[in-house]
Amino acid sequence: MNSEESVRQQEDYNRNFISRITNWLNDSLTLGEMEARRLRHDPTELFTRAVQPVLWLLVFGETFTKIKAIPTGGVPYIAFMTPGILSQSVLFISIFYGLALIWDRDQGIIQKFLALPVPRSAFVVGRTAGAAVRGISQAIIILLLAVILRVEIRWSILSIVGTMVIVILEAAFFSCFSMILASLMRTRERFMGIGQVLTMPLFFASSAIYPISIMPKWLQVVAVINPLSYVVEILRGILVTGVYAGMWFHLGLLLGMILIAVVIATLLYPRLAS
Known about the structure:
By secondary structure, this protein is mainly alpha-helical.
């Protein structure tokens, strides 16, 4: 009898657990769909955010490919920098995502969300899903430009799918990081200030537009611990070189940082309502 009760209790626990996971996924996807709907109503942000990376490829990429000033291991410079510019584009659109949170707080939307019987982590994951949609849109724009410029990158289906997966992970990390900043800064002015301070150093102190090996020693140290460098190296292996040495290590680090960022963003999310 005790054995039957134990089995029944275990079955009930399993059903409840599966039900909680399903509800959490539904809540996260619903919130992500709401974020994607915002983009559909006002897609101008995508094109304005794409202007800078497009200029990088058109001007910087084309020029430095001809003068061959930066060693790239025999790879045309514009192909070498394409993964870096793609990463930069996703970085810029994701790291300012927290600004929308502060705007929602000022409009009273965050307070209404927090009153719902929804796990805080679902809010965070839903927001990252919205950032991922924006990131994929930026990636499509950059890749289309690469086609127009006849950039010599790997155009296999596996490469494109792998690129989109990494873009989603990058958008997830930097949007969570952005939510953490929004929770701590709490005003649009402070957030914009710290965002401007962080974005360009993250970009230039990475392997996005030049190899780490040619950097000064102190900058190499910064580049090695820069999350953007991990993303760039993975994308460069997928899209350009086809060399995946160290990719799984970089991917593991990126996934670990995403998990930590989601936990911290979940803990700090209620601060936005105060």
